[in-house]
Amino acid sequence: MYFFTSDQHYGHTNIITKHHVRSFSSVEEMDRLIISRHNEKVGKNDIVVHAGDFCWCKTYKEAYEKYIRHLNGNHIFIKGSHDRWLPSSAKCRWRKMIKANADADGQFVVVDHYAGRTWERAYHGSWQLYGHWHHKEKDIGLQYNICVDVNDFYPVSFEEIKEIMKGKQNERN
């Protein structure tokens, strides 16, 4: 199963103290809650696409030791605006045709850190999942904000997004 999430900002004290985006008493409390909620939903063999701003670390080794090794699933990381720990070759976009099961038609999904006005196959029913915005934004057509702040600090499953998209119009047609 696929899950999508973004903007965990693990280890980023300023998300609490300076930017006042989150009301936690400490970065440790925030990190524990987000890890716990991640592991409540995501199984060991699930695939998780992280759409940027994962953690406030300097190296992959540090990110792995502090956070990644504690999270269920197999992880795909997209570079966000605070991901200095990822190599410069890290992707800024992820795209894939996802099939819910062998009998289902595929759904083309584009995942970016930033919301776009258009994206690959937008005129043909593809979805764009994005982060960066820590509050609800008005989506354009088949978009959805996967930032943890607007999803009660949980990752969002492909099946949940499929239900959400049923209620949206593809404004591109």
Please summarize what this structure is.
By secondary structure, the chain is of the alpha/beta class.
Annotation keywords:
Purple Acid Phosphatase, chain A, domain 2
What do these coordinates show?
The protein has 173 residues and is α/β, with parallel strands linked by helices. It is 20% helix and 19% strand. β2, α3 and β3 form a beta-alpha-beta unit. The longest helix has 15 residues.
Give the % helix.
10-25%
Number of strands: 8
Tally of structural domains: 1
CATH class: Alpha Beta
Order of helices and strands: EHHEHEEEEEEH
Radius of gyration, in Å, reads 16 Å
Protein topology:
Elements: E1 2-5, H1 14-17, H2 27-41, E2 47-50, H3 60-66, E3 74-77, E4 93-98, E5 107-112, E6 127-130, E7 143-145, E8 156-157, H4 158-166
Parallel strand pairs: 1-2, 2-3, 5-6, 6-7
Antiparallel strand pairs: 1-8, 4-5
